[in-house]
Amino acid sequence: MDAPNSESPQPESNFIIQGVTSNGKAFRPSDWAERLCGIMSQFHPDKIQGGDSHLQYSPYVLPSMLNGIRSVNVDGRLREFEPLAFHFLLNFAKDNDLRIVNRT
After folding, report:
1. Closest CA to 16 of 24, 4, 25
2. Is the pTM of this model over 0.85?
3. Cα gap 76→103, rounded to integer Å
4. Helical residues (DSSP H) of 1-104, grouped into ranges
5. Where are the domains of the chain?
6. Residue in 98, 101, 104, 79 with CA at minimum distance from that of residue 32
7. What are 103's strand-pairing partners?
8. Which segments of the chain are extended strands (E)?
9. Whether domain 14-103 has CATH 3.40.630.30
């Protein structure tokens, strides 16, 4: 397993929050990624322009699986669009000792 990345992602970088702690334990509850993405669903470009009011995940924060581990993909453009939401995600990962993987 890769070691957690202690560096904060760069402003334009994409990253993944994996549901595993630094000691290798699975993060609970098992639907944490969907819950986190649900909270972030308000940060959707269509909602700002008055688009569809149905609940949908933000294209900037999406649940996924990475190597069999429930994860959340974060698009680095969120930092420009909504810096507080971006930092909330980083703090969530840090506070819960979750692995952050930078991606291109």
Report:
1. 4
2. no
3. 10
4. 32-39, 45-48, 78-81, 83-95
5. 14-103
6. 98
7. 14
8. 14-21, 61-66, 69-74, 98-103
9. no
Each residue's pLDDT tens digit, 43-86: 655 555 555 556 688 899 999 999 999 999 999 999 988 999 99
pLDDT of residue 51: 52
Tokens (6 digits) for 90: 């980083």
Confidence of residue 11 (pLDDT cuts 50, 70, 90): very low
List the beta bridge partners of residue 70. 65
Question: What is the CA angle 101-103-104, rounded to 5?
Answer: 170
**Quick one: which of 78, 71, 34, 73 has its CA closest to 56?**
34
Question: Residue 2 belongs to what H/E stretch?
Answer: none
Q: Rounded to whole angstroms, how far apart are CA atoms 74 and 58? A: 10
